[in-house]
Amino acid sequence: MKKFVPLVLLASLSPAFATTVQNLDSVASAIQHPEGKQIFAEQMAGATPAKGFGELPQGLSENQWIGWVAPNENPNNLILTGAKAWGKDGKYIGVACFADNQADAGQAKKYADNTCPENYNNGRANKLYLGVFSWQNQQLTPIARSEKPLNQISAWNKAAEKESDDESVRPLAYYTKLDLAPYRIAPDTLAFGVRGGYSDAYSGGGAFYEVLELYTIKDSKIINVFSDLVYYYSDIAGDWNKDGTRQHDISESKYILKLRSAKTQGFYDLEVVNLQDKSSQIFRWSESLQRYAPFIIDKR
């Protein structure tokens, strides 16, 4: 299968940390970042992912929750729910993940890996809904929700699909956790993150990509304002050793998101920094798109 990387990310995927180890037992110690160590633990040691979406606050039933955040979904197709406290005043960010049908939901729950997993029938993420709400005195007070599942509104997904000529590409195949770092993208606007990714399987290895999506509230809706790659890891089996073991080529790239002091249209510029060589990409607010877009310097 052709290895796919969206054009907007080609520059940021290189250079990467790369090394070759002599056997599979040496892979774990060669991985530099916790994201890769967790991937290896899950793929090779069967470790269960942490509950990255948290749990609904005590007293809030699943039926009450999904009845508001995803009223058009069949409760029988539910895979998981979760929520994490956000800021003060009893606010939470919650999720509900649905399959397309009850059989697929049962299959996903059978593995119980605490993620909104890939739908293996269509190669896409299952349907993940977001909701921001207040929970006080055993009372649910709605604030904002996503009107469509996230895998339909991610700008990173749309760009990836548009720029690919490989029909087997799966731009985003699963969602893993809420990222509630204080992403204050404007003096009066606090965004929150959702992390997800996709993987490519090779004979003797694989590659994993993690994407950060930022969301914010506009009126009573949750909108996607930023999406980009934040981590890449690959393990490709190489030459055979005389003792029957096999060498492995390990590559990693990690990026951090910085909020700059400079503003565009009232929103702080964002900078995605490659930790390997400190190269970076600036993103600025686009009023016409109502989201961040890469800032390209005209060198003519």
Give descriptors for this structure.
300 residues; mainly beta; nine-stranded antiparallel β-sheet; 47% strand
Counting DSSP E segments of at least 2 residues, the number of strands comes to 15
Radius of gyration: 20 Å
End-to-end Cα distance, whole Å, is: 37 Å
Q: Can you count the helices?
A: 5
Instruction: Indicate the percent of residues in helices.
Output: 10-25%
Q: Show unreliable segments.
A: 1-14
Shape verdict: globular
Percent range for β-strand residues: over 45%
The assigned structural class equals mainly beta
Main sheet, how many strands, which sense, barrel?
9 strands, antiparallel
Polypeptide structure, described:
This protein is mainly β and 300 residues long. It is built from five helices and 15 strands. The strands form three sheets. Strands 1, 8, 9, 10, 11, 12, 13, 14 and 15 form a nine-stranded antiparallel sheet that branches. A four-stranded antiparallel sheet has the order 2-3-6-7. The longest helix is centred in the N-terminal third of the chain and has 12 residues, at 34-45. 36% of the residues are buried. Residues 1-14 have low confidence and may be disordered.
What is the element layout, followed by pairings?
Elements lengths: L16 E5 L5 H4 L3 H12 L16 H8 L8 E8 L5 E8 L3 H10 L6 E2 L4 E2 L1 E10 L2 E7 L9 H9 L10 E13 L2 E14 L2 E14 L2 E20 L5 E19 L2 E8 L5 E7 L4 E4 L6
Antiparallel strand pairs: 1-12, 2-3, 3-6, 4-5, 6-7, 8-9, 9-10, 10-11, 11-12, 12-13, 13-14, 14-15
